[in-house]
Design brief:
The complex is a heterodimer. In chain A, 40% of the residues lie in helices and 16% in strands. Chain A has helices spanning 5-8, 11-31, 57-61, 64-76, 96-109, 124-133, 162-175, 189-192, 195-201, 223-231, 243-256, 273-283, 303-313, 328-347, 352-355, 374-380, 426-433, and strands at 44-50, 85-91, 113-117, 138-139, 155-156, 180-186, 208-215, 236-240, 264-266, 291-296, 369-371, 386-388, 407-412, 418-424. Chain B contains eleven helices and two strands; from the N terminus they run ααααββααααααα. Classes of the chains: A alpha/beta, B mainly alpha.
Chain lengths: 436, 296
């Protein structure tokens, strides 16, 4: 084989160049820490750090409209302390191996990065310490129970942890007097985090979990698994899996079960538009009414919700924006951007190190004047203390920066909208958690 | 109904899809010596070609035919435009493997850019009739998939044994230098095999998407490893080995799922692969298998 020019360069020189380049990148990453204040009148960046490709691409994709909507509202109200805001997408690909360099690059190359929405459970363990070390406040959409008692100071979470979701699923099923539950969850960390709470709470007082299966994602067939579940005669199916896996599984269940499905209780993953699209395409839209889910509670009424809807409707270039009207995770992303902006106003600084501690003070537990919009908050700050109560309602962060609140039970309608059926309070979940 | 018997039936369906794919993969590698990791991306492409046609109102089985033909042509185009120039310049097998990986990633990301990450289903397909016989439960679509696989396997067997092209294919696979010396136009044979493997790849993509009902641009990726495993298990480059390897892996996966944690079913299949290769490193059809240079 002919030698190439590259192969003629001495190996030592090539290796040395690579080491110098790596050190250069590492030093840039360190130097790029956002603990320094952004320049005057510069655009402040909200990073959207989540999977935008891969099986969990929907997690990131649905962050964009609410961030853009919130930023549009904030900028049209004059921005924050002379700064405009903008959203920046950073794709983690749902893999820690990709997410870690993505996080480092984001921090190193994004001046004025002041806040982050994300990461997801796919990359949380690997990247949360990196983001925290860069002193950037981040509100995660991960429900990992390992962060229930974290000491990361820049970490915030305003959605329930996955173990609490498992209890909430049990509350729902117990309330409907089901006694034979089948647990069918994907074998990923997101889905499996729901299972311990479910297994700890449902099997009491004559109730049983008749089968507990883990599904490998995106297989060509789940028919054997379906046959096992059917043979166990459950009267309710608890499940969380990605949209393709769920669609294949439920489609084969319907086929093998004479065209019928048992009542299916899913988590917030099953309450997403892409999940609806995939599953309804296989089992039919009418049968989607058999699927209910538990997700973060939010009232779909009130001034905050109306402001959220109006902000979304004011966006250009977003097809089918109505799909986000009843998506509580999307609502939380909108509120997160608002919270960041209002915390900066309250702290009179855009330096994340300074405004990070103001997050709990401006979100519904500080005893201030309740506001539902950025404009209302801006009119009162910094002279008057405010509590921002946004689309997902008041937030109450504990000492570990977690604010979980209650759950809602929602049912899919044939038109692809969600109908709220019931509310599960945090107290009901706590009662089960403490063995009630 | 016995879960074991049920799982055998499901395993046959899985094996049917896998056998079509593995046959195309191993045929193409056996002749061209290109380990084409873009194969699963082409399966995905075929599935979406069929989807697009199905949304225009074409019957799904006609969509299968058209997608098969389209993938055959695209596969030939890939070899002419991408692989052959590199091979002419002396690129080694490992370098071609990396190029094929890059092609696969490019195709997947192009599809993602145009189609997005959402899931889709063939709009003209509903799982309708279900048949129960001999302890099995299979839908009409699944029976058609099995029938397609059987027809393609028999067709491949007849092509390889009863036609002059088939004899030329086997001779080229056995020893391309000797085949050329005997007057066989090996470049033409190589192109024919790219067409054939592309057709099988396209058919496999569509039947895979039919089997899983809901698919996305990522759906083909997870199938590449079982395809390669089936081909290797049977003896890389051996068509009959690929068929048998697919049957073993399909059955092992589904039957094991009946008794163990289903998320481990692939582990069982691959453990079986490792055991077989420990005993017969050239695969099941060891006598006829030929050492192939994959990494040099």
């Amino acid at each position: 084989m002919r030698a190439t020019r590259l192969s003629q360069v001495p190996l030592v020189l090539t290796t040395a160049a690579a080491i110098v380049a790596a050190l250069g990148v590492a030093s840039c990453a360190k130097a790029g820490s956002s603990s320094a204040a952004p320049g005057a009148h510069s655009t402040l960046i909200i990073g959207l750090f989540d999977p935008f490709t891969g099986p969990d691409a929907i997690f990131g994709q649905e962050m964009v409209p609410p961030c853009r909507a919130a930023v549009q509202v904030i900028n049209s109200s004059g921005g924050v302390l002379g700064h405009k805001l903008a959203c920046k997408v950073v794709d983690t690909r749902g893999d820690p191996a990709d997410a870690v360099p993505a996080a480092r690059q984001m921090i190193a190359t994004t001046p004025n990065l002041v806040g982050i929405i994300g990461p997801s459970s796919d990359e949380m363990d690997a990247t949360a310490p990196i983001i925290n070390a860069a002193h950037i406040p981040f509100v995660t959409n991960s429900g990992e129970p390992s962060f229930n008692h974290t000491h990361l100071q820049y970490y915030w979470r305003n959605t329930p942890s996955d173990d609490a979701t498992g209890y909430a699923m049990a509350v729902r099923a117990i309330g409907l007097h089901f006694t034979r539950g089948a647990a069918v969850f994907g074998n990923d960390i997101n889905a499996q985090a729901n299972v311990p709470g479910l297994l700890a709470s449902f099997p009491k007082s004559g109730r049983k979990v008749v089968i507990n299966l883990q599904l490998a994602p995106t297989q060509s067939s789940y028919e054997t698994e379906v046959a096992r579940v059917i043979a166990a005669h459950p009267d309710v199916l608890f499940s969380e899996a990605d949209s393709q896996t769920s669609a294949t599984f439920l489609g084969e269940y319907k086929q093998l079960n004479h065209g019928k499905l048992p009542p299916v209780i899913v988590t917030n993953v099953g309450m997403q538009p892409d999940w609806y699209k995939a599953v309804s395409g296989v089992i039919g839209k009418q049968m989607m009414t058999d699927v209910t889910g538990v997700q973060t509670y939010a009232s779909f009424t009130g001034p905050a919700y109306q402001a959220y809807k109006a902000a979304l409707l004011g966006l250009k270039g977003v097809p089918d924006v109505q799909q986000y009207f009843t998506n509580t995770y999307v609502m939380s992303y909108y509120d997160n951007v608002m919270t960041f902006a209002i915390a900066m106003l309250a702290a009179k600084s855009v330096n994340p190190v300074i405004w990070n501690p103001f997050i709990p003070r401006v979100t519904g537990s500080g005893g201030g004047v309740v506001v539902h919009t950025f404009a209302a908050a801006a009119s009162k700050l910094p002279g008057t203390s405010v509590d921002y109560v946004g689309a997902i309602g008041p937030q109450s962060f504990n000492q570990w920066h977690n604010s979980s609140g209650g759950f809602e039970v929602a049912q899919w309608l044939p038109n692809g909208q969600l109908k709220q059926l019931a509310i599960i309070t945090a107290a009901q979940v706590s009662a089960l958690q403490s063995g009630g | 109904m016995s879960l074991f018997v049920l799982s055998l039936g499901f395993g046959v369906v899985t094996a049917s899809v896998l056998s079509i794919a593995a046959l195309g993969f191993t045929l193409q590698f056996g002749i061209s010596n290109v380990l084409n990791l873009a194969y699963s991306s082409f399966m995905t492409l075929a599935g979406f070609i069929a989807y697009w046609l199905n949304t225009k109102g074409l019957d799904i089985w006609l969509c299968l035919v058209v997608a098969t033909a389209a993938t055959a042509i695209l596969s030939l185009g890939l070899s002419r435009v991408v692989y052959e120039p590199f091979i002419r310049r002396g690129a080694r097998s490992f370098e071609i493997l990396i190029i094929s990986l890059a092609v696969g990633v490019a195709i997947t990301n192009l599809l993602l850019a145009f189609i997005g990450p959402s899931g889709f289903s063939y709009p003209g397909v509903q799982r309708a009739s279900v048949y129960h016989f001999a302890g099995l439960t299979l839908s009409s679509d699944q029976l058609v998939v099995v029938a397609i696989a059987v027809v393609l396997m028999i067709g491949s067997h007849l092509l390889l044994t009863a036609t002059s092209i088939g004899r030329a294919l086997r001779a080229t696979a056995e020893n391309s230098e000797l085949a050329r010396a005997c007057g066989i136009a090996t470049p033409r044979i190589t192109r024919i095999v790219w067409l054939l493997s592309g057709a099988l790849c396209g058919a496999a993509g569509v039947v895979l998407f039919l089997s899983i009902s809901s698919f996305s641009v990522q759906s083909g990726q997870d199938f590449l490893i079982p395809i390669v495993a089936a081909a290797v298990l049977g003896g890389i480059g051996q068509p009959y080995g690929a068929m048998l390897g697919a049957l073993i892996i399909g059955l092992a996966s589904e039957v094991s799922a009946a008794f163990i944690n289903p998320s481990d079913k692939e582990v069982v299949a691959f453990a079986l692969l490792v055991l077989v290769l420990l005993a017969r490193p050239q695969g099941l059809f060891a006598e006829a298998a030929r050492q192939r240079e994959v990494i040099t």
